[in-house]
Amino acid sequence: MSDLNGYMKRVAELTDNALNRLLPSEETYPPSIHRLMRYSTFAGGKRIRPCLTMAAWEACGGTFGDPFPVDAGAAIEMLHTFSLIHDDLPCMDDDDFRRGKPTAHRAFNEALAVLGGDGLCIIAFEVLARLGRADVIAEIARALGTDGMIGGQVVDIESEGKPVDRQVVEYIHEKKTAALLRASVTIGAMLAGAPAQLTARLAAYGSRIGVAFQVVDDILDEEGTTEQLGKDAGSDRERGKATFPAVCGMDESKRYAETLIRTACEEIAFLDAKGTMLRELAEYIRIRIF
């Protein structure tokens, strides 16, 4: 995975430079909200979504480091951070830590966290608008809406402490987590001018690794430590969250994650060498638990 590690580091550097350029400085008035936005955005993370955008862009003929996928990836990272800030709020999951640091509402306050998340979302769409691609904006908006992340979050909240079946858990994972990961891949292909059939294959790959990503997170919440996770281990179980291990058991959850990663890689096998980084990113998701 050494090539992937180097690739992820280079994409993270490009993304962080773009985020630093695109976000208001901490001194920009009113400074409190801009400090919060930067605090959460630069709190850590592997920048997996921008990596997927760049890898899909390259797989479809684009050149590494082009400003189009870099700025698009930065916008997606803003949207991901916005979702984490809101997910951590007392009215949602009420988490105290994220990536080993106090969550935004703990480091600042709840009202500012709500507004900071909103601010990141709005700036992200401003950045996307400057790309001049309405289809890309529509793709990401769908991933965030009530048939995407918001819908998944609603069902996640409404399912806490209740008996649910596998179908409900799959819905939550497909919408709350996989939708934005799928969009990250899809817009990389769209920006590169990929034909519809190729874009659809990459979207299917993105959906599968997106669900696998959340299944792995469910497993890590049970098997990982607080230090490894950067947040309280076992918190999903304590809240009665709808997770794969809770519904299907640990062994079946691991088998399902393996199946999703394998079928995702099969979906893009036709890309041959052009799909190397996409396959390695899928494997990166898998090895977190194996």
Global morphology: globular
Which range does the strand content fall in? under 5%
Report the span from N to C terminus.
14 Å
Might you state the CATH topology name? Farnesyl Diphosphate Synthase
Strand sequence of the main sheet, in spatial order?
A: 1-2
Number of H- or I-type helical stretches:
15
| SS elements, strand count | 2
Architecture (CATH level 2) name: Orthogonal Bundle
Tell me the name of the CATH homologous superfamily.
Farnesyl Diphosphate Synthase
Helix content: over 70%
Structural features, described:
This protein is an all-alpha fold. The protein has one domain: Orthogonal Bundle (Farnesyl Diphosphate Synthase), CATH 1.10.600. 72% of the residues lie in helices and 1% in strands. It has 15 helices and 2 strands. The protein has a two-stranded antiparallel ribbon. A hairpin with a 2-residue loop joins strand 1 and strand 2. Helix 3 (48-59) crosses helix 9, helix 4 (67-87) runs antiparallel to helix 9 and helix 9 (166-191) packs across helix 10. The chain is globular. It starts with a helix and ends with a helix. The mean pLDDT is 93.
